[in-house]
Automatic annotation (TrEMBL):
Alphabetized UniProt keyword annotations: DNA damage, DNA repair, Glycosidase, Hydrolase, Lyase, Multifunctional enzyme
Assigned protein family: Belongs to the type-1 OGG1 family.
Domain HhH-GPD: 122-285
Entry keyword Membrane: no
Native source organism of the sequence: Romboutsia lituseburensis DSM 797
Catalysis: reaction(s): 2'-deoxyribonucleotide-(2'-deoxyribose 5'-phosphate)-2'-deoxyribonucleotide-DNA = a 3'-end 2'-deoxyribonucleotide-(2,3-dehydro-2,3-deoxyribose 5'-phosphate)-DNA + a 5'-end 5'-phospho-2'-deoxyribonucleoside-DNA + H(+)
Domain of life: Bacteria
Record-level GO BP terms: base-excision repair; nucleotide-excision repair
Protein name: DNA-(apurinic or apyrimidinic site) lyase
Xref: InterPro entries: DNA_glycosylase, HhH-GPD_domain, HhH_base_excis_C, OGG_N, Oxidative_DNA_repair_enzyme
GO MF, one annotated term: oxidized purine nucleobase lesion DNA N-glycosylase activity
This enzyme's EC code(s): 4.2.99.18
Family matches, as Gene3D superfamilies: 3.30.310.260, Helix-hairpin-Helix base-excision DNA repair enzymes (C-terminal) (1.10.1670.10), Hypothetical protein, domain 2 (1.10.340.30)
Enzyme class: lyase
Length: 291
DNA sequence: AACCAGGGGTCGT
DNA sequence: ACGACCCCTGGT
């Protein structure tokens, strides 16, 4: 991979297994939006950045080499060899083979743990456009102003201290619905116990999920998502409705419970369970499998 | 036009 | 084990 800077952009040449659509639409993130030109603009790590692809070049716009080295290299998980991961998964069975081919450019972003905690609490019993709207509202109201990009204003996701200034009613006014109380209680608990959410990456997967599910509004599925997307716990397997469908379609009996599907997948896919989940989710959702 | 069913995890009973 | 929770979408 060749990396160089040009006109407020960082250009990556010959990077394998990277497709913006696959990355931003595989269910792992909520703050990336497609633009008229097919590129994606998003807020992460307190910055606004735009990502586009042209043949074998990836353009990271509105950033520079220093930020690439300190932030975006890890954020886009560029140190991980996805070709190898896909090869291992594809050899397991024909369904993973198809799913990996289909979502060939997926990468699991290394996102902020605190932001994932709140975002996936909002995601429970909720749909993606609604989740995006609520997170946007919370950021605009309580997060720091980052700046304008292409005529739009962007705000960082609020820190625990910033979000703690909001009352339950004010949180609900951001269109969180009945999850307002979960967000309030979780934020208060983080502040009160001086929780360092980013340190959860140091825990074992099991310990990490056990700690996460102590927060109000975090059950098994949401806990799995936070661990996978915010804490690099790749040996877990969030089972949402789409993953349940695709698993029942290809692997297990129709009446298998969610915890059993999860265990089945973790036993089968092992350390790569989280990656398998992403390929299967994207495949199932884009193709409407099991609907 | 007005209404109702559907979607989607967690909590509390 | 099961209903309630919020709110937008899509169908009738």
């Amino acid at each position: 991979m060749k990396v160089y800077e040009k006109n407020n952009s960082v250009i990556l040449e010959g990077v394998a297994d990277f497709d913006p659509k696959h990355i931003f639409e595989c269910g792992q993130c909520f703050r990336w939006h497609i633009q008229d030109d097919g590129s994606y603009t998003g807020v992460a790590k307190g910055k606004v950045i735009n990502v586009s692809k042209d043949n074998d070049k990836i353009y990271l716009n509105n950033t520079n080499l220093e930020e690439f080295n300190t932030i975006w290299y890890n954020y886009f998980d560029l140190g991980t060899n996805y070709t190898e991961i896909k090869n291992t998964l594809k050899n397991m069975d024909e369904y993973l083979d198809k799913a990996c081919e289909f979502g060939w450019g997926i990468r699991i972003l290394q996102q902020d743990g605190w932001e994932m905690l709140v975002s996936f609490i909002i995601s429970s019993n909720n749909r993606i456009p609604m989740i995006q709207k609520a997170i946007e509202n919370l950021s605009r109201k309580y997060g720091k102003f980052i700046g304008e990009y292409e005529g739009k204003e962007y705000y960082a996701f609020p820190t625990p201290e910033e979000l703690n200034k909001a009352s339950q009613e004010e949180i609900r006014a951001c269109q969180t619905g009945f999850r307002d109380k979960y967000i309030k209680s979780t934020t208060e608990s983080v502040i009160k116990n001086k929780e360092n959410i980013s340190a959860y990456t140091n825990l074992s997967t099991e310990e990490c999920i056990k700690e996460l599910t102590k927060f109000n509004g975090v059950g098994p599925k949401v806990g799995d998502c936070i661990a996978l997307f915010g804490m690099q716990k790749y040996d877990t397997f969030p089972v949402d409705v789409w993953v349940k469908r695709v698993m029942q379609e290809f692997y297990v009996e129709e009446d298998m419970s969610l915890p059993k599907i999860r265990k089945y997948a973790i036993d089968k896919f092992g350390d790569l369970a989280g990656f398998a989940q992403q390929y299967l989710f994207y495949y199932a959702r884009e193709l409407g499998i099991g609907r």
